[in-house]
Design brief:
2 copies of one chain form a homodimer.
Chain A lengths: L1 H7 L4 E5 L3 H12 L5 E6 L2 H9 L5 E4 L3 H8 L4 E4 L6 H8 L8 E4 L5 H11 L6 E2 L1 E3 L20 E4 L7 H13 L3 E4 L2 H28 L3 H7 L2 H6 L7 H10 L1 H23 L3 H20 L13
Helix pairs in contact in A: 5-6, 8-12
Keywords (chains A, B): Membrane, Oxidoreductase, Transmembrane, Transmembrane helix
InterPro entries (chains A, B): 6-PGluconate_DH-like_C_sf, NAD(P)-bd_dom_sf, PDH_C, PDH_N, Preph/Arog_dehydrog, Prephen_DH
Protein name (chains A, B): Prephenate dehydrogenase
């Protein structure tokens, strides 16, 4: 199997911008499976990439400040992965484009796709066909290179949002990279991706942060936190996520997120009316259908590979 | 220690109305620790109490349909625990009061307190001093007698909301029962209790049910569930809770819950404006203070014994 993966997907040079949890885990995974040659890490700050070098995640550590090293990093690159916060996409691509060779494919790991594609079109212009947008659905509560794991992507979905300009072989090459890391790949449009993740990921994060903020702002916050138990713990686990990342996601996926937030406010209006008027039947019906859907979701494995348009 | 507990808290007969997760776990725990004599289980339906009898959780199984058995159950009882859904409180107490002896204390395990106290006053009248309202902060995703555990209360908070009519010894006796089951006891007013739990428990449940309902109602529900991952899983774990129980809680704690829901809607309006106007600084500040509070809460053990007015 490992031999198949390597023969189906050989490449010699991978360049990762942002060697944290996401980029570092891909590097570890591909190296462990013998699916990549040299891995170059490029960071905003020297300390992060140097730590990745020490940990053996990458072979060469480069910072954006060093133009010559950047040029050198991109020379002969097979694949460039952007694994920095999505707000940096345009700037990074503008730094990359002068050195981008014709055979190099660029992909990303951003949680939002329409904005990333806009940024890529602005930065890459006529070379947009070299950019294949992607989103691995994997993460951990902790972030940074120390949290990287070689098995992070095993069995996880990776969504690719191919552009009309992408050659099918280019999309397949990026998909094969993720499959080599153990992931299951599928494709959908960027608009569909952004709607789906606004609903199942971005909105819950916003709602979780909002609940903690509300308790914090209340006069008896200390007492409330003292008696918060298991329900609060699970509901707010994602409120311990990176503020910078989630600020960027909210702004990058603004349109889809606002639509979900407005629909949610509508749900709360409906629930409020049922509570206020004592409409127990309406409450029980809503709770029961939610419970049934949540239980069914859990029973089929908590997540499921989309059969929308799978690559494989 | 166990010897101390028993000598500080000897009783011969415990009657539990509703032998499910909550009532069953208390029975198992007290029996295992030798802190109770006979345990009588009273249920709405024969099958549940009979199953508890088979499992050795109780010594006698009684149903509400059998008036003579009910009278017998309450004869010489030291403590009566109501562990049925809160909406049944008044009916149960009306059934109990004709047989309630002067030495018997009644307590409950309901998630809401003001409504339970209203129901108790209506049913018990001049004998209200015998009722000590309580709420063990413990639970599991599964319910029913099969889910009962002897260690469910170990290290958990139990909140008592003493009435002005309660003798201090009566409150202490109920507190001692919970401590014998391994719990840590504290007291607060019913109004304070209902505000605290509306914020940290009831509101998150409503929000979690609402999110699943919103996804269900959307045209691409199937695709969304397919790509829902860890954040969704944790945020919606409590949406698998009992619809009947949560309907009752919402109605029973209507006033405090509506206040929290309105405050939350205000939070969402604030967040919506920040997203809509692209106010990244406001978003990041809100997310950062929530993350800090959530992380601090986790680090101090996820919950903490209230020092508001501890019994011990």
């Amino acid at each position: 199997m490992s031999g198949d993966v390597v023969s189906a997907f050989p490449f010699n040079k991978l360049v990762i911008f942002g060697v944290g949890l996401i980029g570092g885990s891909l590097a570890l995974s591909l190296r462990e499976r013998g699916a990549t040659g040299r891995v170059i890490g490029v960071g905003r700050h020297a300390h992060a990439v140097e730590r990745a070098l020490e940990l053996g995640v990458i072979d060469v550590a480069t910072t954006l400040a060093d133009e010559a090293a950047l040029a050198d990093a991109l020379k002969g690159a097979d694949i460039v992965l952007l694994a920095a916060p999505v707000a940096q996409t345009r700037t990074l691509l503008e730094r990359i484009v002068p050195y981008l060779e014709a055979q190099t494919l660029v992909t990303d790991a951003g949680s939002t796709k329409s904005d990333v594609i806009d940024a890529a079109r602005a930065a890459l212009g006529a070379r947009i066909a070299q950019f294949v947008p992607g989103h691995p659905i994997a993460g951990r509560e902790s972030s940074g290179i120390e949290a990287a794991l070689p098995d992070l992507y095993v069995g996880r979905n990776v969504v690719l949002c191919p552009l009309p300009e992408n050659a099918p072989q280019a999309v397949e090459r990026i998909a094969a990279m993720w499959r080599a890391a153990g992931a299951v790949t599928g494709t959908m449009s960027a608009a569909q991706h952004d709607r789906v993740f606004a609903a199942v990921s971005h909105l819950p994060h916003v709602l979780s942060f909002a609940l903690v903020d509300q308790i914090l702002a209340s006069p008896d916050a200390e007492l409330k936190f003292s008696f918060a138990a298991g329900g609060f713990r699970d509901f707010t686990r994602i409120a311990a996520s990176s503020p910078e990342m989630w600020r960027d996601v909210c702004l990058a996926n603004r349109t889809a997120l606002l639509a979900e937030l407005d629909a949610y406010t509508g749900e709360l209006v409906k629930l409020r009316a049922a509570i206020d008027t004592g409409d127990g039947a309406a409450l029980e019906a809503l709770f029961a259908r939610s419970r049934e859907a949540r239980t069914a979701w859990q029973e089929r494995g908590g997540r499921r590979v989309a059969d929308a348009s799978p690559d494989k």
